[in-house]
Design a protein that fits this description.
Strand content: 15-25%
Number of strands: 4
Radius of gyration: 22 Å
Helix content: 10-25%
Largest sheet: 2 strands, antiparallel
Strand order of the largest sheet: 1-2
Shape: elongated
């Protein structure tokens, strides 16, 4: 079984875990409706993405 030769220092451990933190979600105002929506996501109410109709909305 492999055993580490030296103890991992807290500095090295924390550098490795630096990308594990949660990022804030980026919300923008929709140009059509003015409601907040996530960037690079389809607006589920209207079915629009980048000014094009992507989804057919069923009423």
């Amino acid at each position: 079984m492999a055993v580490p030769k030296r103890k991992t220092t807290p500095s090295r451990r924390n550098k490795r875990r630096s990308h594990d933190s949660l990022n804030t979600v980026n919300w923008v105002e929709d140009s059509n409706t003015g409601e907040p929506k996530r960037r690079h996501h389809i607006d589920m109410k209207t079915g629009m993405y980048k000014g094009k109709q992507v989804l057919d909305i069923q009423d």
